[in-house]
Amino acid sequence: MESLDLNKLLKKNPYLFRAKNVSTANELITGLLDAFLSSSEEKLFGDFLEELAIFIAGQTYNGHKSSAPGVDLEFFKDDIHYIVSIKSGTSWGNSSQHKKLQEDLENAVKRVKQSNIHKNVQSVLGICYGKTKISFLRGYMKVVGQNF
After folding, report:
1. pTM, full prediction
2. CATH architecture of residue range(s) 46-147
């Protein structure tokens, strides 16, 4: 909060506040601060869950933070090289962000396969909370909730 200034707050959509019938400066500043804090909390929580997943994979499968773009975690289990992108919840991103994730995972798989070290590579979208399930989507495995 100490580094926050009015210019950063004013980057929020002013039309949204007008549509919400905000008519005083006090209501505007309060609404802007609430929106800023809410998005900050979501980012902090998402970062915490990502770090927790990487830590757990490190302890259980010698996993590590990936250097590949769009990939958060890499580890080996049962002779399979897993490449994982981590999201906190199921409601993330728009269609272009989903497409970008798919491209990032495909590129990471190609990079690993070109090294000729590991032929069994599985890309994964790991979602920390949500209805527990495993499915395949857009060429990668989607693991949600407790299964992840």
Report:
1. 0.75
2. 3-Layer(aba) Sandwich (3.40)
